[in-house]
Structure to design on (275 residues):
């Protein structure tokens, strides 16, 4: 593959997903795009770059971006954000008028483990939340992982990653060697294709947003742009969770760290803005 072809494909991927591909990531193109090359009958990555330059290459460009997106997920990943969520949900619910639905967004949801982890926490807080309804939206740019998330069916290996046995027994049923999450938890969730680089306003306002281990693939300007858009979708007293290696510091003043909580952020309170 020529440097020109790499640069062009990297530009297509960045414009569609925000993912930054540096020249040392050439191996990713070699490994992840082989199935797509075969499907399209293309002999090389140079031929792919040429095809992408041609009119009518929208769907192909979309497929390239999806193939290069990292889809890594596990149940209750990193633990701490879910412990914090369990503590703050009752207060968020109490602050809402009767009948208001609690809305939680799992951005970059991959195969759905994060969204279903949130659903399990909500089910454990039934007494504290009373009759309060909640909905969980999971979004991703990759159609194949969204299809798996909607299915709610996981391998033995997947359920062993972070899922306590008591929750596996309580919320899953074994079907043909896989584990399917209970219908009542699937009913709390819906999964849609959405790009974080697109207009987020149609998604509405959220009380809690999880966007973890997504920003690490973006450059600083893209991170700042996405963080500002997420802050605009967050309720004034809502919580945003980022990955452990991610931060808002130096990128935006629309969000501030929650004291004592790694990876948890909120919108600045009026007093903070005034002082």
């Amino acid at each position: 593959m020529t440097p020109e072809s790499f640069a062009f494909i990297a530009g297509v991927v960045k414009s569609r997903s925000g993912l930054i591909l540096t020249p040392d990531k050439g191996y990713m193109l070699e490994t992840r795009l082989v199935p797509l090359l075969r499907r399209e009958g293309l002999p090389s990555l140079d031929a792919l770059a040429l095809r992408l330059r041609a009119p009518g290459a929208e769907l192909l460009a979309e497929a390239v971006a999806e193939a290069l997106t990292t889809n890594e997920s596990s149940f209750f990943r990193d633990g701490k954000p879910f412990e914090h969520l369990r503590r703050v949900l009752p207060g968020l619910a109490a602050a809402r008028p009767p009948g208001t639905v609690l809305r939680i967004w799992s951005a970059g949801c991959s195969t759905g483990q994060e969204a279903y982890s949130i659903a399990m926490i909500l089910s454990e807080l039934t007494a504290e939340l009373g009759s309060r309804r909640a909905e969980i939206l999971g979004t991703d740019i990759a159609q194949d992982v969204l299809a798996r998330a909607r299915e709610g069916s996981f391998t033995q290996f997947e359920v062993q990653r972070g899922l306590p046995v008591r929750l596996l027994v309580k919320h899953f049923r074994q079907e043909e060697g896989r584990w399917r999450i209970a219908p009542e938890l699937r009913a709390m969730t819906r999964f849609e294709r959405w790009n974080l680089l697109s207009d987020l306003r149609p998604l509405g306002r959220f009380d809690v947003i999880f966007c973890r281990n997504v920003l690490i693939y973006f450059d600083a300007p893209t991170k700042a742009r996405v963080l500002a858009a997420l802050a605009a979708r967050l309720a004034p007293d809502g919580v945003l969770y980022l990955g452990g290696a991610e931060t808002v510091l130096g990128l935006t003043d629309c969000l501030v760290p929650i004291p004592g909580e790694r990876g948890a952020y909120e919108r600045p309170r009026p007093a903070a803005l005034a002082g």
Strands lie at 102-107, 134-140, 153-154, 172-175, 178-181, 189-193, 206-211, 234-242, 256-257, 264-266. The chain has a mean pLDDT of 88.
